[in-house]
Prior knowledge:
alpha+beta, Copper Amine Oxidase, Chain A, domain 1, signal, DUF3298, 21 strands, single chain, five-stranded antiparallel beta sheet, eight-stranded mixed beta sheet, PdaC/RsiV-like_sf, 2 domains, 363 residues, globular, 20% helix
Amino acid sequence: xxxxxxxxxxxxxxxxxxxxxxxxxxxxxxxxxxxxxxxxxxxxxxxxxxxxxxxxxxxxxxxxxxxxxxxxxxxxxxxxxxxxxxxxxxxxxxxxxxxxxxxxxxxxxxxxxxxxxxxxxxxxxxxxxxxxxxxxxxxxxxxxxxxxxxxxxxxxxxxxxxxxxxxxxxxxxxxxxxxxxxxxxxxxxxxxxxxxxxxxxxxxxxxxxxxxxxxxxxxxxxxxxxxxxxxxxxxxxxxxxxxxxxxxxxxxxxxxxxxxxxxxxxxxxxxxxxxxxxxxxxxxxxxxxxxxxxxxxxxxxxxxxxxxxxxxxxxxxxxxxxxxxxxxxxxxxxxxxxxxxxxxxxxxxxxxxxxxxxxxxxx
Length: 363
């Protein structure tokens, strides 16, 4: 069994849970607001800050597909194709995205970090189109879908003026294979804060490697003599307003029918370097735990095959940020059977804080 396929598969479930595009391609779990149900129209119009962009897109598997020509000519993204390795490189500012189209969609690498998902990709009469979620996930765009006019409205948001690159830890022995990627940030004016955040991220990666080696030693080889596999990949899920948030996916396989996916979230203040707990963001939210518990309980009860047992998240559950919302997650088997994968629920801050409250104020 290949771990990449398993990791990719979980993103479809995440897309459904977060109420975004119900796409057949993974990699669209974190769309902004574009979610398209099947309909007769195939042409899609794109606008940027209200101005129409020349080329037309298409409707894909639950999401809008945007031509690369719009990225290049309308959005100022530098697009280069390398015929030798069949790779498209998209560059804008501090961001470099590499896309390798394949039968399952495009494999995406962002600033050296492999994304554990595919993004829908289509070639129509020589024109390449990619899921609009590539823009909303990485390039700092928000999007809105108008079904009446088949229009996607794009707007650019201001990202933090930093760069992130990828560091790797790879280990292999007779019973274990480990591949861990973790982010390294640069460009912060406060070098002390930058070092603090980077050391925290490195410590987490090294701790996971050590725990993986210990677990593998304890387990030994799999029932058919297979090596134990441990992988970890990250996505920058939020990078605005002096805050950076990471979603980390770990994959572990010890032999048998399938491996296990594990999600973790880490959020930091770029002003202080502190890793933020949920209580830091919701300090003006009164009894926010009760509000979140009620929302989560309601969502879980609507899940097919809900196993029951949820009572409370507690004061500081695991979370990450995405598109102005916090995302609460549960691991496999926690409240639903394995086949339903990870559960991830987006909750807007507006549902938890007084109107007009900035959750990042003072951080």
